[in-house]
Design a protein that fits this description.
Length: about 400
């Protein structure tokens, strides 16, 4: 769910070995201007489709109708085989064998375009491609043929669910995505009990990864980036990790939620270890964890960490742009929090400001319906909107995916 999930730009793991932080991407120079339909002003080489998808999905989630050209830009990024690359400067040029397509951008686009509706042909081709690159263990890597990882498998599960597929029935060699996730779930021994690893290390060992755990909880629950708070469950109230039942998706989700709740309990947030310096708050992964906990039913800890984000995430979101605002909107939505008053910040307005003005919002439409008797007023308002391009408006880093060494 990113993916719920962190606030850094996704980069192809197989190519560069780690995610590239959004803050490190340069802003375009006047001679390097990017499409006006694109959200964000940093280099989209590694995360253009990802952040566009999250932005559009977030807008839809809060009742905003995105600008038509922004939706069209996303649609046109698709390759003929159904996959999406992070960014194609010239979508009229056919994708080639060397075009770096990946599962994460493709799955994010499916979730966004399915929610917006009217793009069945596009999402259908994308789902067909995702199925074609499923690994024999049932999961997905970041790039086709790459080793399965928790984050990629989970974001694809979200896409399958959004498209009306049953993930447990999408198999390769008799293995489903849930089988792949269960092999990446740690047991119930030690301080990291219940967590998910990103991938096994070179020795086949699993190391706990908070971002992967948030993704894994959503994946084993069969959820996408946008979730409604689940019913509060016994597991969410503190049930101990159950190792003997780890081989069921439901128990793995409960174990993962327990790990996240414990990790968040002390400070209200997750941390990002930085070599040579003290650990820093990890805002994106904290937002992802809030979504995962809310989806599972641990509404108490989710609400506490959401309040921490309200107080502390403004500067981080402003620096990281549309995907970061989208993550916070997803977290607010999952906990029933108003994203238009998020610690005094209107997340929707800030998100809208990173791209083209949206067409309209649910609030605007409701106001217009109440004013039907005032024909002149309605048409005057519509005219002003058309001329000025005004839209009242205000949503998985890119999510940062940390591959364990």
């Amino acid at each position: 769910m990113n993916v719920r999930r962190s606030a850094a730009v996704l980069a192809a793991v197989a190519v560069i070995g780690a995610a590239t932080p959004a803050a490190a991407a340069p802003s375009p120079s006047p001679s390097q201007a990017f499409p006006s339909a694109l959200y964000g002003d940093k280099d989209p080489q590694y995360d253009g489709v990802w952040r566009q998808s999250l932005a559009l999905l977030a807008q839809h989630t809060v009742g905003v109708k995105p600008a038509a050209k922004s939706v069209e830009w996303l649609v046109r990024q698709q390759c003929a085989d159904g996959s999406f690359a992070p960014y194609r400067a010239d979508p009229t040029t056919a994708c080639e064998a060397k075009t770096m397509v990946d599962t994460n951008q493709t799955a994010a686009a499916v979730q966004a375009l399915t929610a917006l509706g009217g793009h069945d042909a596009v999402t259908g081709k994308a789902v067909t491609w995702l199925k074609s690159v499923q690994n024999k263990d049932g999961g997905w890597g970041y790039t086709p043929g790459g080793a399965s990882d928790t984050n990629s498998t989970s974001v694809v599960i979200g896409a399958l669910t959004a498209a009306g597929e049953k993930p447990q029935q999408v198999e390769k060699g008799g293995k489903s995505p849930y089988d792949a996730l269960l092999t990446l779930a740690l047991g119930c021994d030690g301080d990291d009990a219940g967590a998910f690893a990103f991938q096994p290390d070179e020795k086949g060992e699993l190391a706990a990864n908070a971002d992967a755990t948030a993704a894994g909880v959503l994946g084993t629950l069969g959820k996408g980036m946008v979730v409604k708070p689940g019913a509060r469950t016994e597991a969410a109230k503190g049930q101990a990790c159950e190792g003997k039942n780890k081989k069921t998706p439901e128990q793995a989700a409960a174990n993962g939620a327990g790990y996240l709740a414990k990790a968040l309990a002390e400070d209200g947030h997750l941390t990002s270890p930085t070599p040579g310096s003290d650990p820093q708050p990890d805002y994106g992964n904290t937002a992802d964890a809030v979504v995962a906990l809310a989806a599972h039913g641990d509404t108490g800890q989710a609400a506490k960490s959401l309040r921490w984000l309200e107080k502390n995430s403004a500067a981080w979101a402003a620096q990281n742009g549309p995907a970061a605002y989208a993550q916070l909107i997803f977290a607010a939505h999952a906990t029933g929090t108003n994203p238009r008053d998020f610690g005094g910040t209107d997340l929707v307005k800030r998100l809208n400001a990173t791209g083209p003005a949206p067409q309209t919002t649910e609030k605007t439409r409701a106001t217009d319906e109440k004013s039907d008797s005032d024909v002149f007023g309605v048409w005057w308002y519509v005219g002003v909107c058309l001329v000025a391009g005004v839209g009242i408006g205000f949503l998985f880093s890119g999510r940062r995916k940390r591959q364990q060494p």
